[in-house]
Amino acid sequence: MTTAEITQIQALLSSPKQIVIVPHKNPDGDAMGSTLALYHYLKMYNHNVLVIAPNEYPHFLKWLPGDDTVLKHDSNTKQCNTLLLEADLIFTLDFNALHRVGAMGDVIKESEAIKLMIDHHQQPDDYAKYVFSDVSMSSTCEMVYRFIEMLGNEDKISSEIATCLYTGIMTDTGSFRFPSTTSKTHFIIGKLIESGANNAEIHNNIYDTNSYEKLQLLGCALSNLKVIPELRTAFITLSQDELNQFDFKKGDTEGFVNYGLSLNNIIFAAIFIEHKQENIIKISLRSKGNFSVNEFSRQYFEGGGHTNAAGGKSDLSLNETVEKFISILPSHKKELTA
After folding, report:
1. Contact criterion met (CB below 8 Å) for 307 and 180
2. Pick from 121, 144, 323, 327: most CB atoms within 10 A?
3. pTM for the whole thing?
4. pLDDT digit string (tens) for 118-131?
5. 183-202 as b/e, with b when 16 or more CB fall inside 10 Å?
6. Within this chain, do residues 324 and 290 fall inside the same structural domain, yes or no?
7. 11 & 124 share domain
8. Which helix or strand (DSSP H or E) is residue 271 part of?
9. 202/224 same-domain check
């Protein structure tokens, strides 16, 4: 983002505006952390601000400051559409293509509001007037911190803002262990703690609130784990019946795919989860090193993301999707075994 663009954004924000902030569908910690952090920041300057999420998100994010103000598009469609169409500014956070917000995408496109994108995923679409895109960043929350920094207001970061930003950085970096975690990331985390983020409490709220059913579901997932050692690949499947058996709640499978990646000599892991209501198989992909799951997902499973973390989907059955996945792998043998 150029100095001229920052100056223009400062001018836009110099007087009260109607602002809507939007995360992607099925928002995670980085999506909700970044949107709520920006919500608290903009509220400090007397803007009329709302966060509109496309749909519900996991219970372990419900404690975030400002959660009680978030509107859900799928359950308040008419009200949310009106707010989007009447907005002066729309911030889209943690996604870079309008199809990532489902039915909201068409409304955002139709709205005459000025659009601003803040995102760290690869290959952004061209729908926003102002684009802050950097794939080297650990998270959109780190980018929101730097956005506030560019506006010259990092000293205005409150404990609420700090808590939201810490949450998103922590979750999107796998508790600071992924390669995207840099010295600047740690510097920012230090600043957030100084501003009031309680790191121990945040970690507990995110990771130490498992239900008995979730742990049983994890056991089921691990029993379904398969390994293809000659291609350094592991994958997990979960059927709709298995999800139902263990009273699946949104967010319960978060992080399951990483168990496959944790195996010795495995550099590529996938999880395939059946969603009969949407009639799709949801796919999460993870990798180590230079094998790009972003490219893999874009090429075969209508998805994308980062080099080492991406998502996708399949309209085939669960078994057919797995068969397709296995059939594709040999064509990537050189990359997987290098």
Report:
1. no
2. 144
3. 0.90
4. 999 988 999 999 99
5. eebeebbebbeebebeeeeb
6. yes
7. yes
8. strand 268-275
9. no
